[in-house]
Fold these 3 entries.
Entry 1:
Amino acid sequence: MSSGSRASASSYAPRKILITGAAGFIASHVTNRLIKNYPDYKIVALDKLDYCSSLGNLLPCRSSPNFKFLKGDITCADLVNYLLVAEDIDTIMHFAAQSHVDNSFGNSFEFTNNNIYGTHVLLEACKVTQKIKRFIHVSTDEVYGETDLETDIGNPEASQLLPTNPYSATKAGAEMLVMAYHRSYGLPTITTRGNNVYGPNQFPEKLIPKFILLAMKGEKLPIHGNGSNVRSYLYCEDVAEAFDVILHKGVIGHVYNIGTQKERSVLDVADDVCKLFRLNSEETIHYVQDRPFNDQRYFLDDQKLKKLGWQEKTTWDEGLKKTMEWYTKNPHWWGDVLSALNPHPSISMLTDSTDNYETFMKCGNRTETLTGADSGLKFLVYGRSGWIGGLLGKLCKDKGIVFEYGNGRLEDRNSLVNDVKRVRPTHVFNAAGVTGRPNVDWCESHKAETIRANAVGTLTLADVCKEHNLLMMNFATGCIFEYDKEHRQGSGIGFKEEDTPNFIGSFYSKTKAMVEELLKEYDQNVCTLRVRMPISTDLSNPRNFITKISRYNKVVNIPNSMTVLDELLPISIEMAKRNCRGIWNFTNPGVISHNEILELYRNYMDPEFKWENLTWKSNPR
């Protein structure tokens, strides 16, 4: 395998190209262009069909004899190695990645797995098979970090990488692997770093399609912060041409920025969308809380790619109009996207691409458009007056999911049956129960009430759901374990879903552990979510664990698993959509001690805050 550090004057001509993430937005435009313009090239499209991919994006390729689609994940080493050999691949264009910054703040491990580990699997397969003559790695302008607002000089390809969010950090990490495999093993790599891309077929978690779909519905356009953040936007067809040029003329070992000098603020974009739809921007634009960190500007030096012969052709006005016309004609292309249209989507797994795959395979040469179906969800929620139940209702409203709160008491079977007949739900959420007034000590002196609510009520609801063939999402507790010899404090060994509860230090925990065991008899229609020390960004709620312990004079300093409701409650809705069952430890990764929480509270909320520690003989986890 030759690194070919000096390119010859002649263009590179691939034979068989593997395109990863081919059913995604940018990759599908590149795939369609190559199939159309190069009938001698064989294209193998690989995609796991995640929420932001659709085989509908590849419809122009469907009848081509030199096109093959395979559903699969780049993190599967056996699959990747097999494909490179069986398909005799000589060129890889690696687009597959998790790319939405908002999601990376709440689901960063998935970004590490896809963007870094997936890239590593591909690189190792190339090293082993020794058949690859070009490996084009697709990265992002965000790896450079924030550009100074005052400069008129864009980041050249030799600039230092200074990523500022989990997404860009994983892309920078993947780039380091690509560079290492080029230098250590002579892998013939080329890396691209691109500005924002827009156009038809883009999943509407991204800014421009989100604004267009919201404008079509006559709804507010949410602006993060003050809308002054500046971005450069390239139309998808121009970007597809850029990859065409880099594939054929790019120099091995080099990096190419794919950018434009024309910048627009987020507020400018919103104004332009309003003008296209003849909306009053002052009435339509709505300012919302900013991201945890939102770079002010990304600005690229685009001269290197221009020297290869590429030029941006589509003006902003022309591209935005084309994009608007496409979404107007294809409003249901992505199916139910209400969650993606939220100002701060926390998780996006919205379409069932498997169904689309079957439809695509059956279409043959017909020109049918693939669209998703309406979700048809309707939730019956118990726990209206509780913290989690109240947040669930708000989430359903924000996501456009039809729901109603139950009127019946859980221990009254007839009232539950009447609720089911009245609401006719697809799923039931149980967030009702007794945790104590104001704390679990109340349960010690009110055992009958605790049993009635936490045991009898939950079991009755599970039985009614089984009778009506309904899935019950049951919010339980993780306060049923304590550190023991097999799970020592500080060992990093946590309790698994199948472990037997071992904490009997409170009557509350006893009832919860007992119910969890009995619910196993309803394992076909119950999904149990073990919540532990729930916290959220709402510090005004007295049930928030941060708020609760900040009001104590003395606290026990124990490392605990935590449930960040802002991140995990939306996942419970997604789990209901997927009909998940069984027991799940519904907590964020790792542990944090009570002292660490209070230190953060002091540092960010109250510099004068003080507390004392007390000892505790039994350490619940």
Entry 2:
Amino acid sequence: MASESHHKENLHNLQLEDERQHRNPSVLKMSQIVLPCHANHCGELSIGQLLKWMDCTACLSAERHAGCPCVTASVDDIHFEHTIGVGQVVNIKAKVNRAFNSSMEVGIEVNCEDLYSGRHWRVCQAFATFVAKRTDANKVQLRQVVPCTHQEQVEHSLAAERRRMRLIHHDTMQDLLNNKTFQRSISEENHDEDVALPTERTRVESVELVLPPHANHQVNTFGGQIMAWMENVATIAASRLCNAHPTLRAIDMFHFRGPSQVGDRLVLKAIVNNTFKNSMEVGVCAEAYHGDEPLRHINSAFMTFEVLDEKGRPRQLPPIKPEPQEGQRRYQEALARKKIRLDRKYIISCKQTEVPLSVPWDTSNQVYLSYNNVSALKMLAAKNNWDLSSKKNNVSTILHMSVAHYRVHTLTLDTLSCTGQVSLYTVEESQSLCFRVEFEMEIPAQRAFILLSDLSHRHEWDQHYTLCKLLLRVDEDDFIYQVVTPSVSKGGKYQDFILLASRRPPCDSGDPYVIALRSVALPSHPPTEEFHRGEVVCAGFTIYEVSKSVSKISYYNQASPEVLPYISTDIAGLSSSFYSTFCACRQYLLDNIISTSAFTSSAL
């Protein structure tokens, strides 16, 4: 135990030293002491003021990387964990995580510091998208971010998944609103009309004149300034409902639809859309006009407020009575956003160990389960403390994974003789053992991706996959399979697994192909007496293109302690069964390296 603790301490020190030696050129920091002019009447920092500081820091970071002016395009969900008091210091750090063509993701971390006690604590984290805008007519092509530290590699990899989620955010909302089960749940809601408050009493409208101090050096209104004005009217709307001072807890993902400039009049409208026992959603709309021109829609945002009692606990809020037509639409959409908000917070924001493996899959949370599936594999692949357990020459492999008791894959084998080198790496953390098997072979990366991502052909190279049936094609990148395998004990029940397979082609050159697997619960296929239902924590493949004809294929598995008896001899170097299994898969890839058309139609 002492040697393990010493080893972990050395790894931590090496990581800190690595981060000290390397400084991301886009990193910018801002520190502000909270003065009374920044605070509300409760002595707490106004969230609007905090949003202005966050946007300013992030914009300067984006412009440092781009070398030209940048504008805020969108901001992901923000959850405010703590309030900040007068006299405390706000420390904001922003850096570019990844650049795409003309847009980039900027990560923002906000921490609070108490100067008297020396305590530090996290307030919130955010991811903002900025777009580079040149003053000339030339098209912007941003240079790529080169991650150097372990944390930068993780964020760079996950940024592509977050971008994918942003692009389909609107479609996710519409799919849920059109879902018949969700529509029935709305129609079954029944509030006491006698105590319901009309939403009309919460309506707020205000106008602001955009002056030079509100704009950046391009005379465009700061996105943070617009958000500060929106937060102000949203707070007034929430206060009118509860007759008390509300606390802003979260802001949903929002997009800026167009720019605003100095001289514009910004019309800000807010109203309470719905209440949910201890919280309420306030919708805010910002529109701009100049002179006699018609209103331009700048932004819409949805903010979640709570009202705290004297002990700091959320108070129960009264139900509301929405207005006909538009009010009813806003009421229903607020319920849909709450469902999406809970899914995102539950599936994405939680640590991997806090999310139950077989999360029930449905159309409303499919985007977030897919994100969790791929991001978990990417984070596993990005670990920097892998230990080389063994290396075999004259044996080529690709991992077989039939699944084991409860949460694991068992490893089973076929002995074939192949050529090449296979490396087995392990890392043990807490109660789990993670392993990685890696090798190179002559096959184009895209073809290996197509062949390995279609699990319905798994039985052709893996004799321990008794059945691998496609249950649901979610979309072109996500599939749900039922996998049936023999029991790990003689005479026991066969096991079945419901697996979500998420596949991703490279986002940029240098990115791998990714095939991620995890267990989900499918309501149409509950556990039965016929099979013992098992679960998979995190598994899958990454495939890197070494050259046009050579690929580096890695298989990852995050296993629980139950799998140790099955793989301990391989890890100890007492068996080469791992490597024999890889030969069977390698031969399968070689046999189908040309005739992939049959697989392409089913896999794609």
Entry 3:
Amino acid sequence: MKAKKRYLLVLFSCAFLILCYFGGYRVWKSGKSRINRLTHPKDRLHYLDILESYREKDLDYSPRLNTKGRSVSEDSVTCDMDTCFDFSRCVGDFKVFVYPIQDRISPVYQNILNVIQESRFYTDDPGQACLFILSLDTLDRDHLSPDYVKNMQIKLGQQAKYWNNGKNHLLFNLYSGTWPDYAEDLGFYVGQAMIAKASFSLSKFRPQFDISIPLFPKNHPKKGGERGTLTSNNFPVRKRYILVFKGKRYVHGIGSETRNSLYHLHNNKDIILVTTCRHGKSWKQMKDERCEADNKDFDRWDYQLLMQNSTYCLVPRGRRLGSFRFLEALQAGCIPVLLSNGWELPFGEVIDWSKATVRADERLLMQVPDIIRSLSQTHVHALRQQSQILWENYFSSVEKIVMTTLEIIKDRINVYNSRSHFVWNSHPGALVTFPQFSDISRNFPFHWRHLSLSHNFTAVIYATMPVISSSSPLFRVIRNVAKSSFVSRVLILWNGETAPPTVSNFPHFPVPVNIIQPSQKTISSRFFPHPLIQTDAILNLDEDAVLTTEEVEFAFKVWQSYPDRIVGYPARSHYWDDSKGSWGYTSKWTNQYSIILTGAAFYHSQEAEL
């Protein structure tokens, strides 16, 4: 019996050894062949891509990082410009139709509609329209808000005659959803309509179709807007505080985690992050053990002073992904440090926010101080300057936000004439730059003349006052200009009510003097071309201009270096006048100029022909 057991044990042992030998050999061959396959560069890259895709799955906090996981709202459909937009309606000029207003709308939405109706894109003919804007107020879709429009789906069918499942329609929205989850659905079926929305999440955003806009307050200026504060508060690069924030803290619910953790970074020295839970009707019932101390600390600090004296401003998410703090920081020239994972930044399709903001991960809050302290002064200065460029170009008023939205859509439609990434992210920006803009000299109409500019100029003097004596302002300016060694001819553009004087009664001048009368007595006639103008340079003067010969020649020499620009003496600065509701300009000392008046200025004769 014992011999039999020993025999079975030996048999099983031999079988196990044989199995291990042949199984191990096959595993070794398989592994060897796999290693051999991986020695090919393409295969190595393939496996690296797989590993990279695993690595990226947990780091989806920056724009465009991971678009595969996007979901679509229940009130919309998956769309892009090719599938949900009718380009045949946009063959001619880009025109926008606004539906007639039938119901009460909020003042903010009224401003948006007014801006569109006052723009060059507006048409009152729906047959010419490429894009349609609802008169139904879709800005606030929080059903607890007094501006919430009820029965939107029914009203849409009654008032939106050209709805067509939302195709070629654009909806504006600042707030969506409500407590407790603040869902991004608008509460009605938007179909194929484009959505220009604040606090857009990457998961709901449809790239190259929807547009993310900033969250702006109700009192945001309709036009113009205040300039950024950087022009007068540029230095030092490193300020008293390195990072500041002052705002609400949510004790519980969505958006509470990030703001509830800010006290860990607050050191009451160079990092000032103060919050309050003193908001809402039931805050006393909901307060936690830190509320009382937080409220006292909150009241000690003035947020405007904090921003003006800080290098960085923290912009954490609130209940929604967007925050008013974003635009406040931009205007103040306080570099925004964004703590809002999954937020599609405003106008991210065209704006490079890495040049104006610092983006951090909500889950790595404690790393924020090290990140911002590691940036060089040169980098900090560049970020701050870019924040001012973006604020003034696209965000300082409702008009700029709306027009930026429309210009992005316009560029999508006409791709070949769209503005470059450089134009969008540089001053003066895309809103005032035609798609035909070029920074290449040979594309300018007067470039070839620039290669061989004439060495003389023609003076055109706009005159209306009767000539009484040889000491009159007209004769004085002619004498000073005629003494220049560069003047070729003096033309007197007579636009007065009386008959023009005769040249024979003029004193003798060393250059030809001619009097011409325009066919149209308008001030713009001074810019019309004339056969007697044979030079590249034109000096346009008012008859009462007070310039010496030396000043005339100096301006001409400067113009020769910049013949594609207007070079002159009288300068102004433009601004938006809220009291008049229009643009104005001033000669007051503002430390900056944006306008050269043509009362004493050189320009290229080619510009008079355009």
